[in-house]
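Dear Dr. H.,

I hope your travels went smoothly. While you were away I took the liberty of generating a structure for the chain from your last submission, since the lab meeting agenda had it listed for discussion. I wanted you to have the full record in hand beforehand rather than looking at slides cold. The sequence, exactly as received, is reproduced here:
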Amino acid sequence: MNLRAPSIPLITVDPYFSVWSPTDKLYDSVPVHWTGKPNTLRGTVYIDGEGYRFMGLSDLPVIEQTGCRINALSTKYRFENEKISLQVTFTTPLLPYDLQLMSRPVSYMRTEWEPLDGRTHSVSISVEATEELCLNLRGQSPVDTEIVRFNEEDTVLGVRIGNTVQKPLHCSGDDIRIDWGWFYLAVTGENAAVSCGEYKDKDGTMTSVKAVSGGREALFVFAYDDIESIMYFGRPLKAYWRKSGFDIKEEILRACAAYGDYLYGACQAFSRSLLCHALEDGGEEYADICSLAYRQTCAAHKLVYDENGETLFISKECFSNGCAATVDISYPSMPLFLCYNPELIRGMMRPVFKFARSDDWKFDFAPHDCGQYPLLNGQVYADSIENQMPVEESGNMLLLAAAVSIADRDASFAAENMDLLSKWVEYLVEYGEDPGHQLCTDDFAGHLAHNCNLSLKAIMGIVGYAIILDMTGDSESSASYMEKARQMAASWIKRAANGDGSYRLAFDRPGTWSMKYNLVWDKLFGTNIFPREVIESELASNLRRMNPYGMPLDCRNTYTKSDWLVWTATLAGSREQFREFIRPLWKAYNYMPSRVPMTDWYDTVTSKQIGFQHRAVQGGLYIKLLEVSGKMKYRFKK
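The corresponding predicted structure, in token form, is as follows:
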């Protein structure tokens, strides 16, 4: 990867257990939670009794970092001095085809060293973690520490730290960190040891835990037992990995055993495959962006199971108010999961269907969210009709349902929910052709009436419903909805045209422009209700709007959204035209002054972050992979 990552992933499990390095050199800062608050880890290598720092801050000298390579599932650092070279590899095995493994709250740090001067050296590696890993803020309350025995043979040594006051799921919010459950630090290797102690820095003293290994190779394990993960309409749910019946100690043992046997190799194989496909489909810049986005996208979710054993994949709206199971987060994120495991799409949708059927939801359109992470007790975004997103969310749910049906070649999940889908499609038929004064997913730009791109979502949502009807055997009704979509598309082309080949932001605003990213589903489905010449002329106008760091979202401001930029780029008729959109996006991340996990909302003139970070919407960057795969192509039965 040639991209200088704005922030480097270290531990990426879920919204509470997500640790990053905000500097190019691992020893130039303390690691931080995705929110930017310290999650202090310190790594030290002792060579012949002399200590050198490779991670975090201390008074010790550093061992020089000579490299950092990032792929989809691992971050590999290399350090050297005149005596040894040290490789430190962080891996979180978020393999999407194995949900048990993907849910396991375990991340690895493997160390290997070798002499560079031809001499024999005594080398040990020490890793220290502080109370910040198990508290919202350091010092908020006392913590307990405990040495943990995993088995009688002591092949794995460990220690844990947790809040003295355990109140699972007692609060929700956006800029908060977990303060219940237990953080575990474990180690395998020769001459291993663990201990509890204190960590001192300029702000005072914290309780810490430490693991040490004296072997040529060592495996350090970071794990978190959150006890209860999600409040689901009054019922506390546990993480998906607990379906195995194992407790956290057994799970850590299994994780340690699996790493060397096959797991690391499987992670590298997955990362190589992703890289190769992205490179072939979209070029080097696109491959870099996809590799960096993968762990972030997955770790912005929590994988749990409900009382019926069904998968729930709960997103958190990171730094955009902390909403949980947000429909207009699931919609942009779905390309990644359509590529690798559509069951995760169903896991996103199940909470929304459940809430929409409840007595608490009074509207004829789809809800925005199901709560604020980690408490899913009903929508928190807005109570009034004025601040809902009726066309947006109804279109999103219909397109999610259609896409997952096509991916599986099975519409049974959609069929189970036709009572809601049929109600939502009628809302789009009535109000979607020329949407009223309402919000869309780009709500930071404010209310907008007659939104042309939102109208496209309504049209494509109706197309999605027609596909579901066709798949479930109702070809006659399917044809009727397709005809309605074609009529709306023809009307859209006339009313949205500026006359110069471009199309408007709003039907009543001539001379304006915007990204028409919702059009991408017409291309992916192969329905072609919009003529190619319409798309080509719109793309040509898009390229004229390009700033140094990408195309703005619309004519009202210079900021853009990374997900929608790639969706717009995927409308391109050639790989080279696609890359014309992607190169500025790569530059934006490469030069971005904000050292945070990938933002999706930044300025195209300065590359500065406007807001948002660590959001699941970066799953939308994979839409080119999805398009090239052909998985979304649909052929009607008649």
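Two observations you may find useful: The first strand starts at residue 8 and ends at 12. The CA atoms of residues 156 and 200 lie 27 Å apart.

With kind regards,
E. W.
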